[in-house]
Amino acid sequence: MTPEHTGLTSSHGFPARLLVVDDEPRLLNSLATLLRGEGYEVTEAAGGRHACSIIDQMSFDLALLDLRMPEVDGFDVMAYLSDKQPDCGTIVVSGESSFAAVSRALRRGALDYIRKPFDPDELLTTVSSVIGKQSLLKAHEHVQMRLEKSEALHRYIVNSSPDIVFMLDEDGHFCFVNSKVEALLGYQPSELCGHHFRHILDDRDVARGTYALKGPNITADNPRTLEVRLKTRGSRRATRHFEITAFPIDPQTWPQSQDTRGRTNGKTARYYGTARDVTERKEAEAFINFQAYHDLLTRLPNRALFKDRLELAITHARRNHQKLAVMFLDLDRFKVINDTLGHAMGDRLLQAVTQRLEKCIRKGDTLSRFGGDEFTLLLPSIHSHDDARQISKKLIKALRAPFQLGEHEVFVGVSIGIAIYPEAGESMDQLIQNADIAMYHVKARGKDGYRFFSESMSIDSVHRLNLERDLRLALERNELKVFYQPQVCSTTNRVVGLEALVRWQHPERGLLYPRDFLPLAEETRLISQVSEHVMDQACKDVGQWIREGNPDLRLAVNLSPVQVEHPRFVETLMQRVTAHGFPAKNLEIEITENVIMNDLEQISQKLRELATLGVRIAIDDFGTGYSSLNYLHRLPIHTLKVDQSFVKAIRGGEDGACIVNAIVAMAHGLKLEIVAEGVETDEQLEYLRSLGCHQVQGFFYGPARPANEISQTLCNPNAEAVSF
Predict the structure, then answer these.
(1) Is the pLDDT of residue 391 over 90?
(2) Coil, strand or helix: which one is 246?
(3) Do 401 and 506 reside in the same domain of the chain?
(4) Mean pLDDT calculated for residue range 249-258
(5) Which of 207, 632, 698, 704 has the fewest Cβ atoms surrounding its Cβ within 10 A?
(6) Structure pTM?
(7) Are residues 677 and 605 part of one domain?
(8) What is the number of structural domains in the chain?
(9) HEC-encoded secondary structure of 393-428
(10) SS3 state at 382
(11) Is 6 a domain residue?
(12) 639-642 and 616-622 strand pairing
């Protein structure tokens, strides 16, 4: 920017004098340096109190100040400056972005509002513009004092005004309009004279604008001020916001000239007014208001606006004895996608999800982004539970189709909790909380579904909160124990492997099994800490037994979907194995088919990496999921584990026995090892031996035992697993 830049000089022809006020020295110096570089005369004030002192000693054309300052804040400085130097303009440069603060600053006379951190070019442009406008305004005021001496000078000032200046006859027709109307609205002054002012009013403001001039108390000392929308020339849709100030002219005191008499209708001017373009201010106010009540990523109502609408809907439903539904939606698998592909892709996915959800709801419904990957939906005035049920099914179906994010095709589901007013609560907070509780019950039952809230869920929720608290304490107090269940060779009865199983020694409830707390651990994201504890202890124990003379002993560890789906799964697992000096070839990880099929591409890559490092892969609960020959053939699978439900059915030719036959035959055909779980009787063991299933585990050899009992058996080279 050169010294000839518009606005560099003030109305007196010298470099504009600027006062910069901020209590942050670094920001103060940075702003002052930027302005001096453009040729402005800058004075710095370190805080509000210092600024007031300088204002008493020097005069300024423009002040740039922060709002949030100790002792004397920006509003106080504005008030002091307005009293001492009313001609000095003000620009607020602040990190305070609340609607209340911005609105208050504009009401106090701030000419513009710039948010920190500011863009240097934007700030310099704003300063230049404001100083330019100040210069015009001051010039306008100065020349007005000489109106009586020079009518030509009067016309110059009016036409150079930053505002539209107009005169109307007693019927509301234009008698005079300055040339500014062409720059702001596109009309020639001559084509408006003789027309009624409603000609340029937006249709929505015609009644209000017409009524404004008919008020009985309008005088020169008490002008009428209102904001209206004016149409631009050539388009009824293009409108701009103006602040109109108008008052009647006293024909006894107002000197009439040829330029102020009606040129087309011969009538005398009876009203004088100005119209200031406030479009940018209105747009700024609208944007600030939008920010306060909407999520900028999805453009949906945010939590605050949702609660406002829910409160109104409850009041309406109570008055009319109607029902309404609150839905709490939580996306399934979003965190995995976000962590894997990055936050930019995660944001694109949220926007795509929003578009699909909006297509499923009615016009009067309110869909909001509650936070993260959580959404809430308000269904006002429903007739029955079935209305909410149908909407839930539509939402679930809409999100089942894959999403294309660049080169990636991803799948997400949604878990929906539903609370119906008034059965599930009569207040806003109750309905939201109970819908949230119902959603967590969907998560606990496998996700991708919906449930209505019931009173029993509230009881479960209290129990869940207590158990969650205890589980967090258990991790700190080392209450989680690792037990081991032997995997035994069915022909020699020798222990060939150990499956690590977690137990919780609860101080009040005794020994708890995985089914009692692992679902909660997954729901509360504590599963990773629990698994890390099990892996550390198992590597330590089994590693010691391997070094003590059991070199082929295998450690089998179950892994949760949360762990396997994590982008750094392989790296994290191998770091723990290496840290304990555990041989990778002795480790076998167990995952379910569902984990693989949820994201076959990503999981396949991870399993191949582990297999390359020597880690064995086992499919747990085989036969209960997809049971796809395709992935068995493609992936580095070493072991199939027959689910215990099929083993239990080995009695008198039941269907379960047939399934076991098929699985064992499949394993042999694919050259995979096979382990049968849940073996409890001689009959089952003999049947499995006859099929060629050489590895089994179950209560036939005893339950899972703590490390000290396992150690005693392994130390006896002649001991057989049947002694467990």
Answers:
(1) yes
(2) strand
(3) no
(4) 61
(5) 207
(6) 0.46
(7) yes
(8) 4
(9) HHHHHHHHCCEEECCEEECCEEEEEEEEECCCCCCH
(10) strand
(11) no
(12) parallel
Mention every residue, 6+ apart, whose C-beta is less than 8 A from residue 548: 714, 715
**Of 326 and 279, the one with more pLDDT:** 326
Res. 150: pLDDT tops 70 = no
d(CA 588, CA 573): 12
What is the CATH classification number for the domain harbouring 99? 3.40.50.2300
One domain, residues 427 and 488: no
Q: Is the dihedral of CA 31, 34, 38, 43 positive or negative?
A: positive
Q: Which helix (H) or strand (E) holds 527?
A: helix 527-547
261 pLDDT tier (thresholds 50, 70, 90): very low
The answer as to whether 373 is a domain residue is yes
Dihedral of CA 682/683/689/693: which sign?
negative
Pair (505, 431) in one structural domain: no
Q: Phi and psi at residue 396, in whole multiples of 5°? A: -65, -45
- In degrees and rounded to multiples of 5, residue 300 shows phi and psi of -85, 160
CA distance 145 to 154: 9
We report the CATH number of the domain holding residue 216 as: 3.30.450.20
Q: How many residues comprise the chain? A: 724
Tokens linked to 677:
């779980």
Angstrom distance (rounded) from CA 156 to CA 706: 98
Please tell me the distance from the alpha carbon of residue 463 to that of residue 670, in angstroms, as a whole number: 46
The C-alpha atoms of residue 164 and residue 180 are separated, in whole angstroms, by 5
- CA dist., res. 605 & res. 613, Å (int): 13
CB atoms within 10 A of CB 462: 11
Q: Is 504 helix (H, G, I), strand (E, B) or coil?
A: strand
Residue 137 DSSP one-character state? H
Q: Which domain holds residue 357?
A: 294-453
Residue 297 and residue 131: Cα distance in Å, rounded? 36
Q: What confidence tens digit (pLDDT) does each residue in 309-344 have? A: 999 999 999 999 999 999 999 998 788 788 778 888
Mean residue pLDDT across the chain: 83
Query: Domain for residue 703, yes or no?
Result: yes
Q: Are residues 425 and 539 in the same domain?
A: no
CA-closest candidate to residue 349, choices 325, 373, 367: 373
Q: Are 296 and 270 in contact (CB under 8 A)?
A: no
Supply the DSSP string of 418-459, one letter for each residue.
EEEETTT-SSHHHHHHHHHHHHHHHHHTTSSEEEE--HHHHH
Provide CB contacts within 8 A for 238, sequence distance 6+: 231, 232
Whether 11 maps to a domain, the answer reads no
Rg, the chain, Cα only: 39
Question: Are 276 and 304 in a shared domain?
Answer: no
Q: What is the pLDDT of residue 4?
A: 43
Is 155 found in the same domain as 138? no
Q: State mean pLDDT over 209-217.
A: 70
Dump the DSSP string for 653-681. Answer: T-HHHHHHHHHHHHHHHTT-EEEE----S
Q: Are 396 and 301 in the same domain?
A: yes
Query: Six-digit token pair at 581?
Result: 């000096």
> Which residue has tokens 């999921």?
625
Distance CA 523, CA 520 (A): 5
Residue 463, pLDDT > 90, answer no
AA identity, residue 256:
Q
Least confident of 460-469, 563-572, 601-610: 460-469
Helices 514-523 and 428-444, packing angle to 10 deg: 120
Q: Count other C-beta atoms under 10 Å from residue 525's C-beta.
A: 10
**3-state helix vs strand vs coil in the chain, percent to 5:** 45, 25, 30
